[in-house]
């Protein structure tokens, strides 16, 4: 007997008598191509749901696992538990009204949404942001990257039972949130990058307080290196787990640390430099073994590189100059018909916005390309096969997924 | 990008070229040439990374636009392929055999826009919506306000501000 989901809770017919809208999908298909024909009645297999409420899952998603003993034979990613239709909402809002929406697509690192959307609007509207604003934008993106990596390290260690790392990284992440708060007035959703530039300059004494924060993060990272990366339990669990063959990088659209841990130096900051990255000194961090341990180590070293980048930015950025370009009255802002794609390198890989305008005061279409979309769906479903149930959480966290990017 | 367009145009009949930046261009083409152009770009020109696949609903023109965005990392350039489909019974060839990750995009487009990709793995499996029998929600003719009013109850005692008027009062108090 092939597995069939229980559909008894859903109405079989629409109010107009049709079983479904003619254009909506037909879920009556007996067995979808690509699924294993598993006989649950044989007693050999078991369906196991990891999520949506589960300590071993990242955010609002779940994994439908088919297990044989303690080995996963098939895994399917399910999302949609927090679907708010961000892209659709934006089609009914003016360009400036989209700003409170975009940052909510990624909670731990919202600034990329603000930057990519602002840059896409600027490009289609023919606006150039001032140089000082570009420096501050780069600073914010690197601060967000540090925060995102700190959150990841806690999650990755926690997935293997090392709870204390998360407490340490949460402490220093809080210090960085203090810096965000004094800069933008908000800790999580900053809404600081607007089309045309940024909202404000750096407050007095910001550089000094940022340096103190960076020193504290470095101190904690040195402890994390000892307690997590040199820990025998972490090494035993993470080394060799979740190997991504470099040949899969392009077919599966793998970007960011998972690609760099496989030895492919994919980094948008170098490949297609944006903002002020061409003026900064850095080299993409790469690894060789492409397993969970290497991906964690690549992110740890990338975090240290971001600390260095923040120092470079603060030392070199202009102290004077405009922060906003002149933009039209945002209530009557119409942008000519066109389409563009803007990308950046976020902590998880390539983040991009595809924006289509039609000459009206509203976007025709906004499509968000988050790295989790490819990593947690097609790639995850491939890597999870033959994985031990106990390692599923560690594998999922190693891909650093944020589900709102998938369901948007 | 003009050079690449000229080279491609010698091999395949292509439509309009739109150059957005020096490293980003969009090319219109017809459905029958999509696969050969994708294969050529992937295998001969280095566009090995499928960045995204999405759709745009041009309701007034009765068409869907499918956008395939490819990236060539070595040369730092991107190309977008635009393809127009009639909205009624929209269906397109699947490219999951070229990029396995395309199956996810196609499954989402099937659910959100009602565009079919016959043969794509798990194409009819639910992606985000469960038990959805209404019009595919990302189509322009799906009325989000009507849906919200029919399915959700307003909480009594809540004050609602018209966003446009509120912004006008905040940003341009003297009138604009």
Can you describe this structure?
By secondary structure, chain A is an alpha+beta fold. Chain A has two domains: 40-78, no CATH class; 86-407, Cytochrome-c3 Hydrogenase, chain B, CATH 1.10.645. Chain A is built from 13 helices and eight strands. In chain A, 48% of the residues are buried. Residues 29-33 of chain A have low confidence and may be disordered. In chain B, strands 1-2-5-4-3 form a five-stranded mixed sheet, covered by helices on one side. Chain B has helices at 2-11, 34-43, 102-112, 144-151, 163-171, and strands spanning 17-21, 24-29, 49-58, 63-72, 77-86. Chain B contains five helices and five strands. Chain B starts with a helix and ends in a 5-residue tail after the last helix. With 176 residues, chain B is α+β, with helices and mostly antiparallel strands. At the A-B interface, helix 1, strand 6, strand 7, strand 8 and helix 11 of A face strand 1, strand 3, strand 4, helix 3 and helix 5 of B.
